[in-house]
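One such shown below:
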Amino acid sequence: MLQLFGAMDVPHAYLLLSMTPILVSEFLRKSKFKNYFVLLFLGLFINALSCKYFRGQSIALTLRGDSNFFYILFYFVFKKYNFSIPKMEKILCFLAVVFCACYIVQFIIYPVNMFLGPQDSWMYKEEGLRIRMIGQGLSSLGYFFGLNKYLRKKKHETFYLLLSILCFGTIFLMGFRTMLAAIAVFSLVMIIRVKGFSWKLFFYGALLCGIFIGALQVPIFAQKMDSMLQRQKTEVLTNKEYVRVKQFQYFTQKHFKNTWEYVFGSGIPFVRPKTGSAQDFVGSDYGRKMKVLTDKSNINFVDFGLLSMSWAIGVPAVLAMIAYSFKAYRLKVSSDYYYLGVWFAYLVASSFTTLEFCRKGNFVIQALVLYLVEKAHSAYLHENQRASLSPSPPQLQLQGKVSG
């Protein structure tokens, strides 16, 4: 489903259709997140109607543009096979390590591309190289997974610490300031949830700072930090020439035809290059119009994260995604699995100025995490129930003479 992080190009139709038999058998069964998915896809369908009515793009093309969101349904595949939590965590750990290795290799050998992805994912600007890859949510998930296990002092805690360092280094290479800020905030959240508030926080804070300072001694990381500091001087919302300011003004003042389209979204414009020609595009009139606007003015639906995604797919669909993320965070699990809810909180928070939540490949990872949250919550309830039903240990009775 991750297409080997983009190393191969498999049509969405083949991957999504492969899930259909399982969806038919599993959808009617009880689950924690099914209703949120219903709301999500109802929102997407209404959005397709809105796009057809206001922009003239066919419902089929709009849903085709929405194909990335359908991968959340892989959740039902996990439920079908009922994988154990230890097995799923081994899979998660393996995927995180492999992804980070692939990302770092791709970063080093650029401009040679090993992996497929949107053409604008590979950007050489003055601030340096910034690469996005399919399934890059594995890096942040792997980071919180490793940190959680390290804080819990599980076996192989050195490995978990190294895993967190590897994943953090990969996120740092991506060069997104919002993601780094969110990592810092939710690392603190994770530490407090697992360890509680104590003086040991200073130790863990010093450890994280030490790792960060050590990374900056490596030239490639030092260059990346310098580029982010340079961007901070101009890429601020108080700068009227900043592209995000122009995008916000366009979508809030010029783009929508009325309030209804604003609420239900104007749809993801469908446009793709013809085979063999990167300059010749096919798609709907709406898609070609938005492609021209993007090329000329860099106006697109991605730079305000979930807010700008609501302009494309509609407010109801975005609220459904935020709702299941909040549900995942709120479900009670043992402290071994706090990383699951914290990752979803990080994902929402980091999607203020990035599209990390909806990045290609990340919905498969969300499906994995939602399945794990549900399993961990069930295990938590079972343990509590068993503890409440077990007989209390007999009280010691004091033996002694009674005077009277």
